[in-house]
Amino acid sequence: MKRHLIAAAALCLLAASQLAQAADAVKIGFLVKQAEEPWFQDEWRYAEQAAKDKGFALVKIGVPNGEKMIAAIDNLAAQKAQGFVICAPDVKLGTAVERAARRNNMKVISVDDRLVDGSGKPIASIPHMGISGYAIGKQVGEGIVAEIKARKWNMAEVGAIRVAYDQLPTAKERTMGAIDALKAAGFVAANVIDAPQAKTDTESAFNAANIALTKNARFKYWVAVGLNDEAVLGAVRAAEGRGIKADSMIGVGIGGAKAAENELNKPAATGFFGSVMISAKEHGYQTSVNLVNWITGKAVPPAEVQTKGMLMTRANQAEVRKQMGQ
Ligand code: FCA
Questions:
Q1: Ligand 1 pocket mutation, candidates 86, 113, 115, 308, criterion most atoms within 8 A of CB
Q2: Is 73 exposed, middle or buried (0-12, 13-18, 19+ CB in 10 A)?
């Protein structure tokens, strides 16, 4: 009896140490297209938290273009990583990502921007976590409409800048959702001004919005939408440059990371009225955990997860952050 117990205990110990070893040996990459953007820094921060909690190794790499992205994937493989989470610099690189992962026998999950194949179809073999662009966009539009009404503006005197980056499907969905919400509330299509940005950063949005404002000086008031906080901040800064300040501008972004936080905590209100906060925590932490569970054979990740957002303004910031767990 005693011998049996000792043998069983030894087996347990062996199994436990093997498990610990297996968990220790897991290494994943977290690749993002714009490492300088606060949103992606938050995702990395939460991925690091997951690595600490669950005991796996994490390698963070910025991949601003296709060449750097492929080099990063091959580099991860050389470091014996078994998989990676990615927000690619261009969703059309989907097939290249799929191939590079397969070649290196790595698992891959996409985050934020869903990867597509040559014909623009989402790549089904790559699980994805993102937002419902259209639904989140609608929240932006509805937030703006409520504020237009609160300020008793005449809709006919309001111009809407859509800072556009239509080559990225989620960006198009977000801004179209916002504009559809404005239209549903009686906004006329002729008052919507498209301002295509060359890149998804504040500077490009500023330049795009500046042109739109110059060409459309007829409006008394302005609202602005875009794919993220940076896009809307660009429009807000461009408007300020033309003397359009907080009392005649309502910009609502998407994200809620540091860029929005800084703006909403300036002593005086700006044209950046708010942001639909989305969950960097889920996108960073949960994607990493899902990938690790996939690698260790614990669970296959869901094919697609769409996370939710909440409108955050100066008035309810603390409450929204609390509810989003951030
Ligand atoms: C895209 C945008 C980012 C962020 C993310 C959730 O990747 O470029 O700014 O909004 O979706």
A1: 113
A2: buried
Q: What are phi and psi of 322, to 5 degrees?
A: -65, -50
Instruction: Please name which of 74, 92, 107, 80 lies closest in space to residue 33, comparing C-alpha atoms.
Output: 92
Write out pLDDT tens, residues 233-270. Answer: 999 999 999 999 999 999 999 999 999 999 999 999 99
Pocket lined around ligand 1, Cβ cut-off 6 Å: 37, 39, 87, 112-113, 170, 200, 227-228, 254-255
Ligand 1 pocket test: which of 36, 167, 170, 225 has the largest number of ligand atoms within 8 Å of its C-beta? 170
Decide: helix, strand or coil at residue 17.
helix
E strand or H helix at 320, and its extent? helix 317-323
Output the pTM of the full model: 0.92
Q: Are 260 and 253 in contact (CB under 8 A)?
A: yes
